[in-house]
Specification:
The protein contains five helices and no strands. It is mostly helical.
Length: 128
């Protein structure tokens, strides 16, 4: 059972992840790695919107899997962009390699926190 300690631990790890991304910008005087934060914000939106449009919550309607699959695909694109954008910026010599490493590490912590949160607090169904 997920409790208060797991919420506090997840919040701590999420804060460290965002701190690493911000430090990768501030320590090397280049704010381009902050674009990765946009992918953290945008990544869950397609799943939420397409899941709602697919009508998976409605018991009486036919389930439309195409919209849900499109949401998963777009979410996957955002997640891959979040991991690969620091690589591309470092390859183009826009950011330094240590900034790339800090940004990717922060991304791993943020996405890991999101995955752990959904694992611990996923609604498994009605209890009655």
């Amino acid at each position: 059972m997920a409790g208060l300690r797991s919420i506090i631990a997840l919040a701590f790890v999420l804060a460290i992840g965002f701190l690493l991304v911000i430090l990768s910008c501030a320590l090397y005087y280049n704010w381009w790695p902050l674009l990765v934060v946009a992918t953290y914000i945008l990544a869950p939106l397609p799943n939420a919107l397409c899941g709602r449009c697919a009508g998976e919550d409605d018991l009486m309607s036919d389930f439309n899997g195409g919209a849900l699959d499109a949401g998963h695909f777009i979410t996957g694109m955002f997640i891959v962009t979040g991991f690969c954008l620091p690589f591309v910026l470092a390859h183009a010599e826009v950011i330094t390699v240590p900034a790339m490493i800090m940004s990717i590490t922060g991304g791993i912590l943020v996405y890991g926190t999101i995955i752990a949160y959904t694992h611990f607090f996923a609604h498994q169904g009605d209890d009655f």
